[in-house]
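Marked as duplicate of an earlier ticket. Keeping the data here for the record.
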Amino acid sequence: MYDYLREMFSYPSLFIKLAKVKKTIVPKKINFGPDKNQYFLHFSPQTCDEAHNKTIVWVHGGGWNTGTPKTFEYVGQFFAKAGYHCISLGYRLSPRHKYPAQIEDVCVGFKKGIEYLETQNINCDKILVSGPSAGAHLASLLCYSQEDQSKYGVDTTNVIGFIGVAGPYYFRTKLSNTVNILLNQLFAGKDQRIVGEPYALLAKNHIPMLLIHSKHDGLIDYSMSEKFYEKSQTLGMECELYEVTDKINTHSAYSAGMFLETRETNKALNKLFAWIESR
C-alpha cells in the first residue's frame, strides 16, 4: 500500500518535468491501419555515426487502455538526441478493443516500421525492442512468442536485444487491484489471459534480454520480472535482471519517467543505454 501511495503522489512532479521537455526533433508519422492509434512515429537523429548504428523500436505503456506515441513523444526525442533512429509504435486500446488487437498492431507496426526505414536507406541490421509496463508486455511477446511471430509473419532475425521496463510478464500471482482491473479490460475473460501471458509463451531464441524493475513498484510486482528471468534461465537464454536503485523508484517515475532525467542523474537510464551500447 505504501508503494502504491507513493506512485499516486509521484504524478505532479512528473507532469512538471514533462512540461519542461524541449522538442527539437520533428517526427514523421506513418499510419498502418484505419484506427486512430494504428500509427508509428519515426524520430530521426540529427547526426548518426557508426557508434549509433542501431534502431530502437519502442512500444509505449499506459495500462493497455491509454497513451499513444504522441503522448510519449519525449522518449523518441531522447533516443534520437542520443543518436539513434527510433520507431515509436501505437496500437488499439482496451477496453474497446480486446486482446489480441494490441499484439496484432505491434507486430504489423513493427513490420511496417522496418519496411519504412529501409525505403529511407536506413540500415536495420541491428534492432533493439523495448517498452515500459504494458509496452514491455507487448514488446516481449513480439520478441519471444513464436505463436505470434508465426501468426503475424514477424521476422526477428535482426533483433539483437529486448529491454523490458516494469513489465507484467506473469499473470498468476501477486496482482494488484489495479492490474487485475486492467487485465479484465484487456482480455475477454480470465481464462483468456493465458493466450497473452509472456511467461507462458516465452520460447528460446537468439535475443538477449535486460529486465529493469523496482522492488518498490506499487503497480507491477517485482516478482513478475523474477519469474520471467527464472524461466529464461531454465531455457538457457541470455538475460539480466536489473533492480532499480534510484531514489525515485515508483512505477511511473522509473518506467517511462526516467527519460525525463539524464544518464548522469539516473542509474536505471544509464544502465539501459550502457546495455544498448554493449550490443
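See parent ticket for discussion. The domain at 2-278 is CATH 3.40.50.1820 (Rossmann fold).
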